[in-house]
TrEMBL record:
Native source organism of the sequence: Spinacia oleracea (Spinach)
Source superkingdom: Eukaryota
Family listed: Belongs to the ATP-dependent AMP-binding enzyme family.
InterPro entries linked to this entry: AMP-bd_C, AMP-bd_C_sf, AMP-dep_synth/lig_dom, ANL_N_sf
Descriptive protein name: 2-methylpropanoate--CoA ligase CCL4-like
Length: 579
C-alpha cells in the first residue's frame, strides 16, 4: 500500500553544498583554509596571513552567495571564476551554487581568444577574476563582437596588494571587489537549494588536448556521489591536511573542493608552486594528502638533492599513466602514490588502483608496474568495461586485446553544453559513455589505459601504443619528459615520432641515434621511434597534460619519412628487419 506523504523526507535533492553546512558544525573552529600570499617563492618560510575556520568559511560563502544573488544572478545562470588556488577560489565553489548559479572555473593559462570564446559560449553573467589575471580578461572581453553583452566583473584583490589595475578595467562592468562582496552580504541568507539533484552545479570545459574544448555540464547529484566516492576509495581520514597542487579549475579539483569539506580538511592554498615550494609546504604544514598529474610526480622525482620526507604524503595522480621509473623514484622519497582514471565528463576519478596489501611484499619493479595500471571501477561507478569498437562486445580479459573504455555511473555528465550531436556521439544506444580512451583488461579484472583512440599509431598494420613507447623513453636517465605521436611514413603509413625534453638542457651525449638504439634494446623493433625531436619543454595544458595535437601537427609538418625505394624486395626486407 502506497503511503501518500505530501513532503517526502527521503526525497531531498543530493548536493555537495551540504558538506559545508555540516563542516561548519562538526569542525566549527578547525582551520579550513590556510594561505600565505607570499608563497610564490616559499609557502613554508613566511608567516601565514590568512586562516579561516570552517565556521568562518561557511559564513563567508553565505554572504558571498547573498551578494551574488543581489546582482541579479538567477537560478541556472553561469558564473565564471578565473583565479589560481587561493581562498576565494575555494569559497566560490560553494557560494556560486548557493546563489542558485552554475560555477564555471576557467583555465588560467588560456589565451585571450579562447577565453573570449568560452565566455560567450557559456553566456556567463558574472566573472570573478584574480587581480593578476584581469589584463587577460580585459583582452578577452575586447574580442567580443560589437553589441554582445558583457558579464559583470568582480575583482579578487588580496588585502596587502596595491590596486594596480591602472584603469585597464575601465569600460567593463566591474561592480566591486571580492572582499566588498563578502562583507556586504547578508549573514542570514537562505541559500538557494537545487529544485532537483539533477540540476547543474558546474560547467567545466575540457582541457583542450584535442584542440576542441567542450562544455561539460555536471549535476549536484553526480558531484555529491563522486566526492564521497573519491574520499572512500582514497581512504581519506577526517581532518587531513590537503595541499592544493591540483588546479581547482580542473574539474573542481576532481570534486575534492567539496570533498575536503566533508572530512573537515585543512586546505593549504597555493597561488603558484614548484618542487621546492611543495617540499617546504609539506614540511611546514605536515601535509598528508595532495593530488596532481604525472607531470607533478616527475617534477618532485627530479628535484635535485631531494631528501626523504619526514612524514608520509599520500598523492593521488591521474592522466597519462605515470612511468614505472617515476613512480619508483617518487615513492622512494616518502610519497604513497595512488593512481586513478577519470575525465572532465565524469567530474573526477572513477577508476582506482584498489591496491592490495599483499602487493606491498613484491619487488619494487613489480609494485610500480601494478601501480601504473588504472585499476577497477570505483564504488560509485556502476559499470566499467572495454568494448571492441567494431563489434561493440566486451574484449577478452587477456591484458592485450585493445578496446574503448566505456562507463556507466552517477557522476557521468548531463551532456555537452549546446552540443546535442556531441552528446549523442559520446553515448551508445546501450547506455554506455564512450571515453575515447583505448585500454585492456587483465586477467584479474584490472583495467589499464593504453592510449587515446586518436593517439594509437598504426604502422604497417601494427597497432602501437604511444604510452608504452613513452614508458620506455622515461627509463632513459637523461630524459625529463617524453611524448610520442605518429609521423607520416611513405612505406609504413606512419611511424612513432618521439618528442623529448632532457634533464640537462643541451646534453650533447644524447643524440637521436643514441635514443633509438636505447629503445631497440628494450622494445619490439616496430615500436621504436624512427624520429626523435629534442625540445626545451613539451607543450602542456595547465593541468600537466601534453598537448599531443600540437605535436602531431609538428610531426605532420615534417613531411613523410622517406625511403629510397619501395619496389626493391631487398630494400623492403631490410626495412622489415629494421622494424
Amino acid at each position: 500500500m502506497e503511503m501518500l506523504i505530501p513532503f517526502r523526507p527521503n526525497s531531498v535533492p543530493l548536493t555537495p553544498i551540504h558538506f559545508l553546512e555540516r563542516a561548519a558544525t562538526a569542525f566549527v573552529d578547525c582551520p579550513a583554509l590556510v594561505y600565505n600570499n607570499n608563497n610564490n617563492n616559499n609557502n613554508g618560510g613566511g608567516s601565514v596571513t590568512t586562516t579561516y575556520t570552517w565556521d568562518q568559511t561557511h559564513q563567508r560563502c553565505l554572504q558571498a552567495a547573498s551578494s551574488i544573488k543581489s546582482l541579479g544572478i538567477k537560478q541556472g545562470d553561469v558564473v565564471s571564476v578565473l583565479a589560481p588556488n587561493i581562498p576565494a577560489m575555494y569559497e566560490l565553489q560553494f557560494s556560486v551554487p548557493m546563489a542558485g548559479a552554475i560555477v564555471n572555473n576557467i583555465n588560467t593559462r588560456l589565451d585571450p581568444r579562447t577565453l573570449s570564446v568560452l565566455l560567450r559560449h557559456s553566456e556567463s553573467k558574472l566573472v570573478f577574476v584574480d587581480h593578476l589575471l584581469h589584463p587577460l580578461l580585459v583582452r578577452a572581453l575586447s574580442l567580443f563582437p560589437p553589441g554582445a553583452p558583457h558579464p559583470l566583473i568582480i575583482l579578487i584583490k588580496e588585502d596587502n596588494t596595491d590596486d594596480n589595475t591602472n584603469g585597464s578595467i575601465k569600460g567593463t562592468n566591474m561592480v566591486a571587489n571580492y572582499n566588498q562582496l563578502v562583507d556586504g552580504g547578508n549573514p542570514g541568507f537562505e541559500w538557494v537549494r537545487p529544485k532537483s539533484e539533477w540540476d547543474a552545479i558546474a560547467l567545466n570545459y575540457t582541457s583542450g588536448t584535442t584542440n576542441s574544448p567542450k562544455g561539460v555540464v555536471l549535476s549536484h547529484r553526480g558531484n555529491y556521489l563522486l566526492a564521497l566516492d573519491t574520499l572512500l576509495e582514497w581512504s581519506v581520514p577526517k581532518q587531513p591536511v590537503y595541499l592544493w597542487t591540483l588546479p581547482m579549475f580542473h574539474a573542481n579539483g576532481w570534486s575534492l573542493t567539496w570533498g575536503m569539506a566533508a572530512v573537515g580538511a585543512k586546505n593549504i592554498c597555493l597561488r603558484k608552486f614548484d618542487a621546492p615550494t611543495v617540499y617546504n609546504a609539506i614540511q611546514h604544514h605536515h601535509v598528508s594528502h595532495m593530488c596532481g598529474a604525472p607531470v607533478v610526480l616527475n617534477m618532485l622525482a627530479n628535484l635535485p638533492n631531494a631528501k626523504p620526507l619526514k612524514n608520509t604524503v599520500h598523492i593521488l595522480t591521474a592522466g597519462a599513466p605515470p612511468p614505472a621509473s617515476v613512480l619508483f623514484r617518487t615513492e622512494s622519497l616518502g610519497f604513497v602514490v595512488s593512481h586513478g582514471y577519470g575525465l572532465t565528463e565524469t567530474g573526477g576519478l572513477v577508476v582506482n588502483s584498489a591496491w592490495k596489501a599483499k602487493w606491498d611484499r613484491l619487488p619494487a619493479e613489480d609494485r610500480a608496474r601494478l601501480k601504473a595500471r588504472q585499476g577497477v571501477g570505483s564504488l560509485g561507478m556502476t559499470e566499467v568495461d572495454i568494448l571492441d569498437p567494431i563489434t561493440g562486445q566486451a574484449v577478452r580479459r587477456d591484458g592485450s586485446t585493445l578496446g574503448e573504455v566505456v562507463l556507466r555511473g552517477g557522476s557521468v555528465m548531463l551532456g555537452y553544453l549546446k552540443d546535442p550531436e556531441g552528446t549523442s556521439k559520446s553515448m551508445t544506444r546501450t547506455g554506455w559513455f564512450r571515453t575515447g580512451d583505448v585500454g585492456v583488461i587483465h586477467h584479474d579484472g584490472y583495467l589499464e589505459i593504453k592510449d587515446r583512440l586518436k593517439d594509437i599509431i598504426i604502422s604497417g598494420g601494427e597497432n602501437i601504443s604511444s604510452v608504452e613507447v613513452e614508458a620506455v623513453l622515461y627509463t632513459h636517465p637523461a630524459v625529463n619528459e617524453a611524448a610520442v605521436v605518429a609521423r607520416p611514413d611513405e612505406f609504413w603509413g606512419e611511424t612513432p615520432c618521439a618528442f623529448l625534453s632532457l634533464k640537462r638542457k643541451g646534453d650533447e651525449e644524447v643524440t637521436e641515434k643514441a635514443v633509438i638504439d636505447y629503445c631497440r634494446e628494450r622494445m619490439a623493433h616496430y615500436m621504436v621511434p624512427k624520429t626523435v625531436v629534442f625540445q626545451e619543454e613539451l607543450p602542456k595544458t595547465s593541468t600537466g597534460k601534453v598537448q599531443k595535437f600540437l605535436l602531431r601537427e609538428t610531426a605532420k609538418a615534417m613531411g613523410p619519412l622517406k625511403v629510397c625505394s619501395y619496389t626493391n624486395n631487398k630494400v623492403i626486407t631490410q626495412i622489415s628487419r629494421m622494424q
